[in-house]
Automatic annotation (TrEMBL):
One of its GO terms (molecular function) is DNA binding. It comes from the Bacteria. Residues 7-75 form the HTH gntR-type domain. This is GntR family transcriptional regulator. It comes from Algoriphagus kandeliae. Keywords: DNA-binding, Transcription, Transcription regulation. Transmembrane segments: none annotated. It holds the Pfam family GntR. SUPFAM superfamilies: Winged helix' DNA-binding domain (SSF46785).
Length: 125
């Protein structure tokens, strides 16, 4: 995992785990690495991972089963899909529409590009 400077590390770890859940790589009931394991794997402080897990537990994305570990909650995927869509529509889509407008790109211009991106992503799977 490579980190960027534009966002705090604990949120980047959350984003990575969210992506794993939304793409189906992690499903409800799956055990996730312990704080110590993940911290060692990605070479960050254990407190950073603990902060990520605490946030995700508060959000209802993961459950802490004392003495056993952290697990993906039963409602994680549905909750994340709803929240991530809403965030994209609120934060990212207006920027995209604005940029397309500035560049005078029409829906007819964008549709083939969107289709090509979808095909490329399907090939990567």
């Amino acid at each position: 995992m490579e980190f960027s400077d534009h966002k705090t590390i604990f949120l980047q770890i959350r984003d990575w785990l969210v992506d794993q859940i939304l793409t189906g790589k992690l499903i409800p009931g799956d055990k996730i690495p312990s704080v110590r394991e993940l911290a060692a794997d990605i070479e960050v402080n254990r407190n950073t991972v603990m902060r990520t897990y605490a946030l995700m537990e508060q959000e209802g994305i993961i459950d802490n089963r004392r003495g056993i570990g952290f697990f993906i909650s039963d409602v994680a995927r549905q909750r994340l899909a709803k929240d991530e869509k809403a965030q994209f529509i609120q934060d990212e889509l207006p920027k995209l529409v604005h940029q397309a407008k500035v560049l005078k790109l029409t829906l007819a211009d964008l549709q083939p590009l969107i289709n090509q991106l979808k095909e490329n992503q399907n090939e990567d799977k």
